[in-house]
Amino acid sequence: MTLERLRELLDGFARVRLAVFGDFFLDRYLIIDPARTEVSLETGLEAYQVVDKRPQPGAAGTVTSNLAALEVGEIRAVGFIGDDGEGYELRQGLEATGINTRHLLVRPELFTPTYCKPMIREPGGIER
Fold first, then answer.
1. Secondary structure (3-state) at 101
2. What is the dihedral sign for C-alpha 104, 91, 97, 126?
3. pTM (2 decimals)?
4. Most buried among 6, 13, 33, 104, using CB within 10 Å?
5. Radius of gyration over every alpha carbon of the chain, rounded to an integer in angstroms
6. Gene3D superfamilies from the xrefs (predicted)?
């Protein structure tokens, strides 16, 4: 493939319309400052202080985010989420990247699946 052909393909993404069917999860990154770790009086175990959090679409939401980064013309999310705060955050995250969430249906009997992903903030602000 030539560079010219690759550019033609990438330029064509703006005309593409896609629907992503799948399990939409919320990825909630919990940023922990290890300098604030202390021992819990109740359990005797280390307790980590969350100093920041970063919610973003996960699972099928990761696919939609990647397509949006490629500047695909129209992307529709098709699936189910719960009628809960996590579902609200997930919808907000999808819409912030231009995803059409009209077909992301809210079901009161469901919980929005959520992955909590602790990240340690190292000196200098690096997270791992």
1. coil
2. negative
3. 0.86
4. 104
5. 19
6. 3.40.1190.20
